[in-house]
Write a structure and sequence with these properties.
single chain; 138 residues; at5g01610, DUF538 DOMAIN; 9 strands; At5g01610-like
Length: 138
C-alpha cells in the first residue's frame, strides 16, 4: 500500500478533505454528490497510480431518495480513480433487498450517450441511474 501512496497529495481535516474530494470528483467527471462524507480525517490522491483514499471518523449511511438506494460508506474508503470511473473500490456497500454487497466499481457513461451512473459489485450489476440524481450538497 505504501507504493500506491507514493508522491500523494494529502488533505487533512474535514474542510480541506471535503474540498479535495469534491475537486477529484469534478476533475474525473464524477457527480459531486456521489460521496456524502461525514467527519473527514484525511483524503489522499496519488496521481501516478490513480490511488485515492478517504478516512472518516466513522461509517456513514446515506439514502439517495431519487433512486431509492441506501449506500453505506465505511470509515476507510479506497479505490483507483480514472476518468468517469472508480475501480477496485473498497469501503462502499449498496443495499439490495436484505443484503449489503460491496460496490467494487462506480462508472459514469459518457454524457453524450446516456450519462448514467453504474454501481458494480460481484453480487449485483445495477441497471444505471442518471448522474443528476447525485446532487452536490453545496
Amino acid at each position: 500500500m505504501a507504493a500506491e501512496r507514493e508522491g500523494a497529495v494529502v488533505a487533512k481535516g474535514h474542510e480541506e478533505g471535503m474540498k479535495m474530494a469534491a475537486s477529484l470528483l469534478e476533475e474525473f467527471g464524477l457527480p459531486l454528490g456521489l460521496l456524502p462524507l461525514g467527519d473527514v480525517v484525511e483524503v489522499g490522491f496519488a496521481r501516478a497510480t490513480g490511488y485515492m483514499w478517504i478516512a472518516q471518523r466513522r461509517k456513514v449511511e446515506h439514502h439517495f431518495r431519487m433512486v431509492g438506494k441506501h449506500v453505506s460508506y465505511d470509515a476507510d474508503i479506497t479505490g483507483y480513480v480514472k476518468p468517469r470511473c472508480i475501480k477496485k473500490l473498497k469501503g462502499v456497500k449498496a443495499k439490495e433487498l436484505m443484503l449489503w454487497p460491496p460496490v467494487n466499481e462506480i462508472a459514469v457513461d459518457e454524457p453524450s450517450t446516456t450519462g448514467k451512473i453504474h454501481f458494480k459489485s460481484l453480487a449485483v450489476a445495477e441497471p444505471g441511474f442518471q448522474s443528476w440524481v447525485f446532487p452536490s450538497k453545496r
